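The aim of this short unit is practical: by the end, you should be able to scan a pair of folded records and say something sensible about each. We start with the first protein, listed as its amino acid sequence and then its structure tokens.
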Amino acid sequence: MKALIIDNDEAVREALVRLINTHCGQITHITQSNGVNSGIKAIEGGKPDIVFLDVEMDDGTGFDLVQKLGNYDFQLVFITAHNKYAVNAFKFSAIDFLLKPIDPDELVLSVKKAASQIKNKDLEQQVKLLKDILSGSGTSTNKEKKIALNDGNIIHYIKVADIIYCKADGSYTVFYITNNRKIMVSHILKEYDDLLCDLGFIRTHHSFLVNITKITRFEKTDGGQLFLEENHSIPVSTRKKEQVLDLLSKL
């Protein structure tokens, strides 16, 4: 695999080169660029398999760079300092990212993922979704907002409004979606709790995250039981019961 590192900080680039050489044997060729314009030229001339792209650079942002590109014949990994808004945008679009300072284990996982998806042609759609989110057009209404869910083989683009509930399954999360659809992704439920809590979802139990617009009734047995559209029923833990009742009283 050929890698391209685009970052305006030479020390960051050199540190990433050392990490790649030490931990990522799949990558046999590494080139570097220090900004948006030079990065575009390096992508077009070098045809990398994987691009590590900084978010903030001297002549623009990594988002500017992807907006100027027409083709995405590579796997993309953003490099960013912790910025909740940017991180959430990456998660919604299922585009990979690494937080600075880069953790070697996280780097290894990113490279393995890129190697397994090297022929994945979904990046153009993922970038489009990322652009929509960052420009605000992807957040105009919850009804139209989409999330990308990667099940390991296919990236599904799902309307948030179509998600009925999410269920924890060990280190995985299962999405139950309208019309009897089900998608399992390799991320813990807590990640989606953080992403969806401001979009009308509530954690009713340590294992369940529910779209409140899909609730049809609540039965006060034990902790409680929520009944949802399409004949789903979800337990409510005793600890969450008052919070759920309070929310339902405001609907």
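Turning to the second protein, read its sequence before its tokens, just as you did above.
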Amino acid sequence: MIPIAKPWLGEEEKKAVLQVLDSGMLAQGKKVAELEKAFAEFIGVKHAIATSNGTTALHAALLAHNIGTGDEVITTPFSFIATANTISMCGAKPVFVDIEEESFNIDPELIEKAITDKTKAIMPVHLYGRAANMNKIMEVARRYNLIVIEDACQAHGAEYGIEFTETNETTKISETTKTNEASKTKTQKVGSFGTGCFSFYPTKNMTCGEGGMITTNDDAVAAKTRKIIAHGSEKRYYHDYLGYNYRMTDIAAAIGLEQLKKLPAFNEARKKNALYFNDNLSNQTNIILPQMDEGHVFHQYTIRVKNRDKVLEHLTANGIQTGVFYPVPIHQQKSFSEYNQQSFPIAEKIAQEALSIPVHPQLSDEDKYFIVNTLREINP
């Protein structure tokens, strides 16, 4: 079986864990602080706060921005359910807008229409490792004074090109190019636009076993987040408000530190594998391939097929594991029954066609060749 995901853990991770076990400091300690510092530098932000998983990162980030009862958060219906669950966990209401067909990410052109006087934040998801359209999302957020919380749980190291213009006096972000200004683009890692949230689950581009991370440039948000994940406490046994035990362990952080060192190479391998598939499956009329964006880190390589069950069965029969992420959009889930009458046609269409195939760094050339030829055997 060629697995859909395969964590790449080596001797470095094993040695790091044993060192923590020998130290006797198993809970949050020095290793967590080291990982936070290294991850903040990697993303390009002032602060990174480690948590127990991606879901707790999202929940704590929302709470740190005072999202609560009566508030609305605009997000996508096509994501893992934790995206919407964490909004509901705060007592707020998720407000869904449809996605772009090509990127699978939230359609920024639809966000403005969903804004009400109760809207407090936008939560874009960088799905499958591809950045959402942050130029437009940030422009809308600035115009309406909205918080942006990035669900980057699948996008460690993904980048987005920021459009800006240069004048003789200053450099500023802009969507338009004026005749007397030179339009330029620079890349910026996801998780550095607003408040970012990452997951280190075993299937992610890097793993801690379980773990999460919140990234921000806001000192106040960082300080409040640190209290929220430690029972609302800054000083032990003194609690300022309701909080939770959302802390990461040093064991998990030790793994994460070694994984972070390898992340750029992991991402390059994923992109190389994705390019191979795009090059060798481009003539398959029954398959819609994902776009190759420069900043895409391919947490998943997701194709679209009309006859998904047939394709899935054929790949499985030949020992190739696949994944359907996600077969039921959030607004159609039983747990969100109050949204069941809403319709988001693109998300519903993609949910019927999306099929992810292995793209992880441990694929061999023989694996990739076999996957391509197995897909070629399927008739339109």
